[in-house]
Specification:
This protein is α+β, with helices and mostly antiparallel strands. It contains four helices and eleven strands; from the N terminus they run ββββαββααββαβββ. The protein starts with a strand and ends in a 12-residue tail after the last strand.
């Protein structure tokens, strides 16, 4: 029911809670920032606010804006934010917040559901909405629903997992 992963961020824990899996990650609160011309030129809609932790966090007026963002991959692929990306977010219509995540020069340009991006989204929205438990949707083509909470320097995300591989390990 619990799996531990060793990573560059330290030990990461995944626990099973019925049909949901909970990820335990370090919090990465963002600070105010400015966009590069390449990112500005690469998005059809411009944000109201710009923040940055590992990833750029672009804040928009509403959920419709997030749905209507059309990234210009040819322009955005001119930059390399490795290991980061571009998070676009807004207050949700039926959830606390919505988001999408773009990674220029990556094999998958728009990630379906991004745990690492929520390391920044959760502390940002927890402070803005003055609450520790948040309900989120990543509104990529596949999409994903997350039940999040902030506890000190840790963020916890629960959601369904998509199976991509089954097999056996012989030790």
């Amino acid at each position: 029911d619990t799996i531990l992963f060793n990573s560059h961020s330290g030990q990461l824990k995944v626990k099973r809670f019925g049909a949901l899996f909970e990820l335990d990650f370090p919090s990465r609160p963002p600070i105010k920032a400015q966009l590069s011309k390449t990112i500005t030129d690469g998005l059809n809609l411009q944000p109201l606010e710009v923040w940055k932790a590992r990833d750029y966090l672009l804040v928009y007026e509403n959920e419709a804006d997030i749905k209507n963002i059309v990234p210009n991959t040819a322009i955005l692929n001119q930059i390399n934010l490795d290991p980061g990306g571009i998070i676009v977010t807004a207050k949700g219509d039926s959830v606390d917040f919505v988001s999408r995540f773009f990674t220029p020069q990556a094999s998958i340009f728009e990630d379906p559901v991004t745990g690492s991006a929520h390391c920044t989204l959760i502390p940002f929205w927890a402070k803005r909405l003055n609450k520790k438990e948040l309900h989120a949707l990543q509104i990529s083509e596949r999409g994903g629903e997350l039940f999040c909470r902030l506890e000190g320097e840790r963020v916890y995300m629960r959601g369904k997992a998509v199976c991509y591989l089954k097999g056996f390990l012989h030790l």
